[in-house]
Sequence to fold (434 residues):
Amino acid sequence: MLRPFFYVAPRTKAELLGILRDEGPGSRLLAGGTDVLAELRVAGKAPKQVVDIKKVEAFQGIRFDPGEGLSIGPRVTCADVLASPLVHREYPLLATAAAKLGSPQLRNRATPIGNICTASPCADMAAAFLALGAWTEIESARGVRRVEVKDFFVGVKQTVVEPDEVVTRVVVPAEMAGAAGDMEKLKRIRGHDLALASVALVKHGGKLHVAIGSCAPTPVVLPVLPVDAPVDEVKAEALKVIRPIDDVRASAEYRTFMVQVFIERLMARVEPQ
Amino acid sequence: MRIRVRVNGRDYQQEAPDHWTLLRFLREGLGLTGTKEGCGAGECGACTIIMDGLTVNSCLVLAPEADGTVIETIEGEAVAGELSPLQRAFHKHHAVQCGFCTPAMILSIKAFLRTNPRPTVREIQEAIEGNFCRCTGYQQIIEAVQEVTGQREGQEELGHA
Fold:
């Protein structure tokens, strides 16, 4: 059962930024709600108010700008990503990741931006965004700033986003359009489950980009490597950035092993365009 | 907040506290208790309903978020005491054991079949991955789906692999 709070749903970005300026620390932003409402229930505590950002018109839509790249707004759901021909054509890894997230019911509500804002180590969209070199645009009444997704996560469920700020876009750079990539996600069952370990891998423009989930306090990304880097070198680089733990879902040893298996599989399977 | 929703073709207007979930509003506000609460955290899918054409876990939607939406629940399935074809198929194939997951299972399958009227077994399995049946009657549920899609011609009931 949820503890009482007030519900507000600003209609414009200006109105939202005003609310966050005045009452940021007592406010919890709500987009898809699939993480926020579960968390409020489990934590048994409540913010003063839940601020629903889905009424802000400017927050909708998936757009492509040939100079900038693919821009995804905070209202866009994982189901929207999956339904977008543009995503499938230019950034297929995002569709692959969105399809691996949750169940149909969750994908109909959950948003890619919410997924990174929750900042779970196992965030499926985070691995894809990291492998594609995405960045976020973060706004407050104080102004706008741009933060690379690789610098976005601070710790388990912690991000650089301040209480008066909101992530207004996530952008995948134009130079990654058409990038060949794929993702492996280890689960306990074939149905919906959180990742025990995941690897997203992109080969594009002579470069190799590898991101790993569920193996450190945050999703992590390897330094950019040459596309023809030997598999053993890629695995060695992965072992330098992961810090897996034993928990109820898997042991650190199993995670470490499977990350290497996934790297081998993806290195063999992904063909640069 | 005053919530206005159309549920199973009927318009409702009712006050609800801001922090109520849509699930609680349906059950305690409107008295539509066919939708069940299982885990309350988006894992089990027992609270699945169709909102504006899409399945959602109603435990993860706030009642105020549902204001102005069109909702389908299990109460809209049988008409004038007659089971729907999907319900009849569940009955025929023994796809109901304890029954707790059934209302949500029906709603997930109903929404799924609108987009994919001739699914493969694998596609049916994926369509109900967000609905747990702890009696584990999945095989019977899949058979029931195949019954309504006309994909079980010539096959016996309970033809378990």
Notes: Chain A touches chain B at residues 2-7, 9, 30, 33-34, 37-38, 41-42, 46, 50, 52, 54, 79, 102-106, 108-109, 190-192 (CB under 8 Å). Chain A has ten helices and 15 strands. Residues 180-269 of chain A form a domain with the Enolase-like; domain 1 fold (CATH 3.30.390.50).
